[in-house]
């Protein structure tokens, strides 16, 4: 369970540091709009959000996800350790598959969500937004398992968009053709590709040792020109993930280890992920608390909503019968593809569960210095806002 | 073996006094109970051991804190014979002007008036009163107050807290303020505020920290001193040896129909659907039960029940519990009656304390912080054979010494050489007060904290399993969210010294755990 370092320690750099792809991103950046992501310099936007968004939905895009935290979990007890950590049954995740997972504290409150990559019977990678090394070491106590923090040594690119398979094929990765969504395999020595993403579209994620990162970038870039490949930043991805209905840590839920105030944590059930909780698989962290809370213990409901009008509802308060405040929007955007005003919203139970009608969003709009308030109707929506069968088609289509 | 032969309502792990008390309490409620003991002897820390034909107290040698409710419930001393003798405390002084105290009265051993007698009487009386107030909390689980003000259980707990508050209030304003002033404080300051530093102060300081990884200047040691005084503070020597205590608990349990199996090694606790089902023994036998009460340490209990069955936070808390044992046990078989110049034979039969001053005790603690044993040891010694001659062959005598500080994690480990060194230092220290005592040693026995851990399973060889610090008592004993005996898995309970109210040969933790198990209904109506 020790973190091993092969190179001698270097002085700790001050401020944000560069990802393995920074040289290419910086050369492409017209906007020079950067954000700190887990200590790394990461683009908000490289050109314009509109170009980048439409590239995700109509072409192919490269987004540098190297700042994601990556942990290797290997050893005879790796499966048992992970199954005690997360709420779903990892035993059902086959080798060469990727699974979305959530993990909770002892009160059943979400610590973080992420993806589990299964290399083999006893070898996994956990990929997530929040730093988790200390928690994983705590989780591993009593298990015969080795935890390595791979965050700094594995670089990763998210290749998303309808032409992403074509880009891969032209880059020499035709072997991914047979991969179904959530498959993952080593297509070449040291290059692993998963058919995963955060956009709800056709897409892949590519994982390489940091030293080989730029070579991979160039290979994709050279193959991509013909397919409209663009490098993109966070802003466009965020639009797409809301369209796909994905939740984001720190935005749609507060990772409970980070929250300072009482009662900021939410359970997977409150976030609408009851299907991710397997009460029958044996003990997992927070199981007893979640069972005790049961259905009636649900204090909140994170829901997808369709908001009337076209003004993005981010941060808007939600009212019942235009009077009673019952929640607020956690993520709200105008969806360019579906041409709808969409949002994720947290409602206080029983709103969003038993009571789903007569809901209103109060949106404040600043029009060149003049504030205006609009009360618009809200409709609950099941399923993602954006859905396209190209995302799941196997073999994938050229575009 | 037929399955029915191996089915009980409850299994108790460990046949120490707490395990036996838990078993007897469950059996008294009509439950079938089986106690499983790893060693081949019953009694845990309250056992006798043979030393050259003498019956010596293997580990603990005195009773301070035997819980009156447990005594009553188990019929100890009435239905079940247990005879004890109260020993006065003798504070040994290098100048042989020893000090004696009993029932809060201090005098010089030669009968002269001690200049601090009045102050000592006030201090001792006050601490005993405070301790009695806190002692009310021992006979039930620590308050949880989780149910809200409309919950009957919570109201009952609030009533108990109210009783404590009312008791505090009845002390009067001055005394209540004093209680609140000192409760989190350190013994050294409290003692030396009232009496001058010397053997009397030293003995009090030593009593405050015996068994603890603490010096008298450590915070929370006023509490540990009060804990010791919880039942008046008198030291009781069991007649017939410490084994008589174990036998009394055993008899009380057996009289109620408890089955006790010794020499039994548990492979693991069987868990299904988040409930205990029983245990699998190393020999392949399965014993079924609906509840399992463990008097082993929390970490050991977690391991035999499967770490995966506990929440990660609970495991982390348990891993981080403080239980560094600091006392060794030394038994000496003497071929002559011990002679302590300045003491009569009657006084020599008392509880002898080597702690010439509070400062001496604090300094003795310093090496323990760094994994070394003290040069100048703090010792609590008794001569059981002077009170009960039947314990030794004619002409021989027994000295039983509790020796501080001898840290569990001694640098270099507890080798035979380390034990010999500790014995040599002990004899050297005793020789100051009983010149030539080394020459009369016929046989000796040294148990380091590591040996005590091996013998009894006590984590860190710690006498209280989990240090009695202010961060590890009441609602956080052994840790937050596991303070009310229930231990994660349905039907699993902690019933040993690591649970509230804590260590010493007391029995309250075992009784409380059994009552909680019954109350939770895991054994049916």
Explain the overall architecture.
- The complex is a heterodimer of chains A (399) and B (525).
- Chain A starts with 21 loop residues before the first helix and ends in an 18-residue tail after the last strand.
- The model of chain A has no long low-confidence stretch (mean pLDDT 95).
- Chain A is an alpha+beta fold and 399 residues long.
- Chain A has eight helices and 19 strands.
- Chain A has helices at 22-28, 49-58, 78-85, 133-140, 164-170, 213-224, 234-244, 287-293, and strands spanning 33-37, 40-45, 60-64, 69-74, 98-104, 110-120, 123-128, 146-149, 154-160, 184-188, 191-194, 203-209, 229-231, 300-307, 317-320, 324-335, 340-348, 359-367, 370-381.
- In chain A, strands 10-11-12-9-3-13 form a six-stranded mixed sheet, with helices on both faces. Chain A has a six-stranded antiparallel barrel with strand order 14-17-16-15-18-19. A five-stranded antiparallel sheet of chain A has the order 5-6-7-4-8, covered by helices on one side.
- Chain B has 525 residues and is α/β, with parallel strands linked by helices.
- Chain B contains 17 helices and 20 strands.
- Chain B has helices at residues 17-28, 68-74, 117-135, 152-170, 173-182, 187-194, 199-209, 221-228, 243-255, 298-305, 312-319, 345-348, 358-369, 384-387, 416-433, 449-456, 508-520, and strands at 10-13, 33-36, 48-51, 54-57, 84-87, 89-91, 99-102, 105-108, 235-238, 259-261, 266-272, 275-281, 286-288, 291-294, 327-334, 351-354, 378-382, 397-404, 441-447, 492-494.
- In chain B, 57% of the residues are buried.
- The A-B interface holds A 80-81, 83-85, 105-106, 135, 138-139, 141-143, 282-283, 285-288 and B 274, 302-303, 307-316, 319, 481, 488-489.
């Amino acid at each position: 369970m020790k973190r091993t370092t092969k190179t001698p320690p270097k002085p700790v750099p001050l401020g944000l540091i560069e990802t393995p792809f920074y040289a290419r991103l910086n050369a492409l950046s017209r906007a020079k709009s950067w954000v700190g992501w887990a200590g790394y310099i990461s683009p908000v936007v490289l050109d314009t959000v509109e170009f980048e968004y439409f590239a995700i939905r109509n072409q192919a895009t490269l987004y540098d996800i190297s700042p994601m935290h990556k942990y290797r979990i290997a050893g005879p007890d790796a499966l048992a350790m992970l199954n005690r950590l997360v709420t779903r049954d990892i035993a059902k995740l086959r080798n060469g598959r990727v699974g979305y997972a959530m993990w909770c504290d002892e009160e059943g409150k979400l610590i973080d969500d992420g993806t589990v990559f299964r290399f083999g019977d006893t070898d996994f990678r956990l990929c997530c937004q929040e730093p988790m090394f200390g928690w994983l070491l705590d989780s591993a106590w009593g298990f015969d398992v080795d935890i390595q923090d791979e965050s700094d040594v594995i670089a990763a690119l998210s290749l998303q968009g309808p032409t992403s398979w074509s880009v891969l094929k032209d880059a020499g990765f035709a072997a991914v053709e047979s991969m179904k969504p959530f498959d993952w395999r080593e297509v070449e020595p040291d290059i692993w590709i998963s058919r995963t993403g955060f956009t709800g579209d056709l897409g892949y994620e590519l994982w390489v040792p940091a030293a080989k990162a730029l070579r991979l970038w160039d290979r994709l870039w050279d193959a991509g020109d013909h397919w409209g490949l663009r490098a993109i930043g966070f802003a466009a991805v965020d639009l797409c993930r809301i369209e796909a209905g994905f939740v984001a840590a720190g935005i749609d839920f507060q990772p409970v280890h980070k929250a300072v105030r009482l009662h900021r944590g939410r359970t997977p059930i409150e976030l609408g992920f009851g299907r991710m909780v397997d009460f029958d698989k044996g003990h997992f962290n927070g199981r007893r608390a979640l069972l005790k809370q049961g259905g009636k213990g649900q204090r909140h409901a994170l829901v997808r909503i369709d908001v009337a009008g076209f003004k993005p509802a981010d941060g808007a308060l939600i009212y019942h019968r235009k009077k009673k405040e019952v929640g607020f929007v956690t993520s709200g955007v105008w969806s360019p593809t579906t041409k709808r005003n969409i949002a994720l919203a947290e409602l206080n139970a029983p709103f969003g569960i038993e009571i789903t009608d007569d809901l209103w969003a109060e949106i404040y709009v600043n029009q060149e210095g003049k504030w205006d308030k609009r009360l618009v109707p809200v409709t609950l929506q099941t399923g993602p806002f954006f859905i396209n069968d190209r995302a799941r088609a196997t073999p994938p289509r050229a575009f | 073996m037929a399955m029915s032969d191996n089915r009980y309502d409850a299994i108790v792990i460990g046949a120490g006094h707490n395990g036996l008390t838990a078993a007897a309490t469950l059996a008294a409620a009509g439950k079938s109970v089986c106690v499983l003991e790893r060693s081949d002897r019953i009694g845990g820390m309250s056992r006798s051991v043979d030393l050259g034909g003498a019956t010596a107290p293997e580990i603990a040698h005195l009773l301070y804190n035997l819980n009156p409710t447990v005594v009553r419930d188990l019929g100890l001393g009435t239905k079940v014979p247990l005879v004890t003798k109260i020993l006065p405390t003798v504070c040994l002084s290098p100048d042989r002007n020893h000090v004696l105290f009993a029932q809060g009265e201090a005098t010089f051993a030669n009968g002269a008036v001690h200049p601090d007698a009045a102050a000592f009487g006030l201090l001792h009386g006050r601490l005993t009163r405070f301790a009695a107030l806190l002692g009310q909390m021992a006979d039930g689980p620590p308050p949880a107050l989780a149910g809200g003000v409309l919950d009957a259980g919570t109201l009952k707990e609030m009533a108990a807290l109210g009783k404590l508050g009312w008791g505090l209030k009845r002390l009067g304003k001055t005394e209540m303020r004093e209680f609140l002033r000192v409760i989190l404080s350190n013994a050294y300051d409290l003692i030396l505020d009232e009496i001058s530093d010397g053997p009397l102060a030293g003995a009090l300081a030593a009593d405050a920290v015996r068994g603890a990884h603490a010096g008298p200047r450590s915070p929370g040691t006023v509490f540990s001193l009060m804990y010791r005084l919880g039942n008046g503070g008198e030291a009781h020597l069991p007649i017939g040896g410490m084994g008589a205590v174990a036998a009394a608990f055993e008899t009380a349990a057996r009289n109620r129909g408890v089955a006790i199996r010794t020499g039994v090694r548990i492979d693991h606790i069987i868990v299904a659907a988040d409930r205990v089902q029983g245990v699998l023994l190393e020999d392949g036998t399965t014993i079924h039960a609906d509840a399992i009460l463990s008097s082993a340490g929390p970490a050991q209990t977690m391991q035999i029940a499967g770490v995966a069955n506990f929440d990660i936070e609970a495991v982390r808390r348990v891993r981080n519990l403080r239980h560094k044992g600091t006392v060794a046990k030394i038994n000496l078989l003497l071929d002559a009656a011990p002679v302590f110049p300045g003491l009569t034979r009657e006084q020599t039969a008392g509880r002898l304390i080597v702690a010439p001053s509070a400062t001496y005790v604090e300094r003795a603690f310093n090496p323990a912080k760094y994994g070394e044993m003290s040069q100048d040891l703090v010792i609590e010694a008794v001569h059981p054979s002077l009170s009960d001659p039947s314990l030794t062959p004619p002409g021989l005598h027994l000295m039983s010494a509790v020796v501080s500080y001898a840290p569990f994690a001694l640098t270099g480990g507890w080798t035979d050489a380390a034990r010999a060194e500790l014995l040599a230092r002990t004899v050297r220290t005793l020789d100051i007060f009983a010149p030539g005592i080394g020459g009369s040693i016929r046989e000796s026995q040294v148990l380091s904290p590591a040996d005590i851990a091996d013998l009894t399973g006590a984590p860190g060889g710690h006498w209280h399993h989990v240090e009695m610090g202010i961060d590890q008592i009441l609602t956080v004993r052994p840790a937050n969210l596991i303070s009310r005996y229930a231990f994660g898995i349905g039907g699993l309970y902690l019933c040993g010294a690591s649970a509230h109210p804590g260590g010493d040969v007391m029995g309250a933790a075992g009784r409380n755990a059994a009552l909680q198990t019954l109350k939770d209904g895991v054994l049916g109506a």
